[in-house]
Specification:
This is Ribulose-phosphate 3-epimerase. By secondary structure, the protein is of the alpha/beta class. It has a single domain (4-222), classed as TIM Barrel. The chain has helices spanning 17-23, 48-55, 71-81, 96-105, 152-165, 182-188, 197-200, 205-222; strands at residues 4-7, 31-36, 62-67, 85-89, 109-114, 132-136, 170-174, 192-195. An eight-stranded parallel β-sheet has the order 1-8-7-6-5-4-3-2. The protein is globular. The relative contact order is 0.16. The model has no long low-confidence stretch (mean pLDDT 96).
């Protein structure tokens, strides 16, 4: 699959979200929405009402990443609202299979996220239930963190598991993705890239997306996975 870029509006101007989403509409693939509840992670950001409002203005599909304590309760509602991808965290979900199936039943792609210290091997049997596996490359909760190189072997392992099962599962990385790190992520096997500060902190977000995509495409072409 060709690399996809999903800019995170966590780094956008919250007072001008619709405008900042429109700025990237012709260059990005997704709008990444980091939903945080100040319980699962130590930060409070956006919730369902904001997502519902954004859906009325965004020409791009919303990629909702739920970093919340009770994803089993809330995840299906994001899909029902119109988000095209909804990711829950393995560390928070109490009934992941049921919740992932509910997301799919509501018409969205179902994603499973794992934190940096969480091994991926334990979730191999769940790969058939997901459309995307998200690997955090920082500790979740805040934007602008430094990329954790220690996660790269896990990205490679996840790609091996997906390839070994011959499943059409996307592999997303989120955290510290920038011009300095995206090539390593692509070489390791990632194909969907969440970028916050690297896009919205740039003088020209559109050009930043184009450059990130070009780097990812070149690295992917050289990779042997």
């Amino acid at each position: 699959m060709a690399p996809q870029i999903s800019p995170s509006i966590l780094s956008a101007d919250f007072a001008r979200l619709a405008e900042d989403v429109e700025r990237i509409a012709d260059s990005a693939d997704w709008v990444h929405v980091d939903v945080m509840d100040n319980h699962f992670v130590p930060n409070l950001t956006l919730g369902l009402p904001v997502v519902q409002a954004l859906l009325k203005h965004s020409r791009l599909p919303l990629d909702c990443h739920l970093m919340i304590e009770d994803p089993d309760r809330w995840a299906p509602e994001y899909a029902e609202a119109g988000a095209k991808s909804v990711t829950i965290h393995a560390e928070a979900a109490k009934a992941p299979i049921r919740t992932l199936r509910a997301i799919r039943a509501a018409g969205a792609r179902a994603g499973l996220g794992v934190n940096p210290a969480t091994p991926v091997d334990g979730f191999e049997d769940l790969l058939g239930e997901v459309d995307m596996l998200l690997l955090m490359t920082v500790e979740p909760g805040f934007g602008g963190q430094k990329f954790l190189d220690v996660v790269l072997p896990k990205v490679r392992r996840a790609r091996e598991l997906i390839k070994g099962r011959d499943l059409p599962v996307w592999l997303q990385v989120d955290g510290g993705v920038s011009a300095e790190t995206i090539e390593r992520c692509a070489e390791a096997g990632a194909d969907v890239f969440v970028a916050g500060n690297a896009v919205y902190g740039a003088d020209d977000p559109v050009e930043a997306i184009r450059n990130l995509r070009a780097q990812a495409e070149e690295a992917t072409a050289k990779a042997n996975w």
